[in-house]
């Protein structure tokens, strides 16, 4: 038997540190449990574009023992209550919809979608079934200063500075969780006859051995790609964007309001993200270079940001949409960009890291002899998750009526995954529900599909099943309840900037 | 005229403070912050619990007077029906302001306070401009509050550090069958307290904070006396 007593994480970005932290916290590294070593190259900069999280991050931070106040103060973090998609449907100035983080009123006990179709009273789906859109439109925070840490009045995630986040995680891993931090370059990979990695050779610290190796080396995919040669599955046939121009935009003054949601604005050949941190905004244009050129993309970004862009430094990041055919090969598992990358349309990068770190931690193979079983399970789970995320991202493009070549090409049948085509056919007559998403590996709930479908003007024809709509009274109550919650939320929640300031000054209590 | 001013024996020679009015100002308050030094007197009649300051989220110890926002069940027929009244009531209309340098505190008065009169009540100064016994008493109260607030803040900080604070789940049914859920109150987590390691208990003991901690726990029984008071009003 070969017990797994030592895990080696190669790479020190957010992926590496989150994985190291979860394993160390879950396996008592500090008090003599599984040893965790993280090797970070002093010469390779991190990519650091994952600046939007899911609500799952609250649980991740709690599990590794970081206080919310400390996280918000040290990572320039702000609250995020979902995404506002502007100009995605027809490109008009009034064209927008929300994908909030709060589930529809009464979900999943009652599915309000068919009742909303029957009588929307002129209201958008998200505003009729969820109070969060109103909260975002009014620039309000998802909680009060009296709300305990990690609890919310409305569900929320974060926008954060990825560089500062990695620094906080590093300090926490080393000082609190007993992770050994080695600053060195990996120069070679040493393997056993069965292909397993036995150790990685470093420039100054010799060979570092272990039973499990986590590849967090980013795009270079040092272990999973270069060493094992696991092929990369290119998905640019479905998702066309292949470049991002990113820029950090300071606020005009320290009192400037901070948006409490990601703003995603469709453009001729892609879309622009706009996220609010405490001290600056993060803005970026993701585009398809087959449909525009870098010069034109830069002027699109300039038009969005305004004249102050001239004084700021714009970074171009290539995007290769896709993922490894396998994420876990032998005794090596890829987490983060080494496993794959997609445009940040639904902030899937960090959540995939969290999900991977969670599964590795909770199902850490006790010994090498059972590792292949868990590896297979891991590969099935993540292949499923990547496919669902790709489907969901594609859905945003499919329903657009925009007329530019990028958008028209996005609607060609050849670019749509079969499963998604099938689902869409079904959804023309049955609204998305839990029966569409039966796996315990699901990433997006049926509610997310509803928000995007109906936000983009998709119609479900419920005529032939009208007799199944026996909860009209309850539905009406739920719509009214939503209106009451909106009024209550608007009356009690503080402005986002005001809450951020109070977190700096007073912090949240733990209870 | 300035409303909040430093007390001055020349300018304020004629001022009097109406004690009945001082108490009446708390007639519609359902809670007030209290300090450690008062706990033993408070626990005879009031529940001593914790609540969060709405503006800062910080905890403070309070004495509870009622369940609704403006309900003071100790205010009965125009008088305060209790053996002891918290310092935050009786020190009115005086407060401590910052003096010339940061360390100095000066006694100030809210001249527009309804308890301040020229006709009846306690004088602050005698005909020679010397402080009256009443004013000396007020000064003692203010000093006790100043020191007590800092001490109580440290006490609450220790409770938090030891994770001894927990939210209270209060569901009350009154004689008229009306049910009320009282939110936003916190108390000592008895289970955590029982399981506290010896060194933490020794530390609390050395700081003399074990007594106030148990006083808070014991005072919780007065929630029932409050319910009884309310029921008597409803009958």
Automatic annotation (TrEMBL), chain B:
UniProt name for this protein: SapC family protein
Domain of life where this protein originates: Bacteria
Name of a matching Pfam family: SapC
Species this protein is from: Steroidobacter gossypii
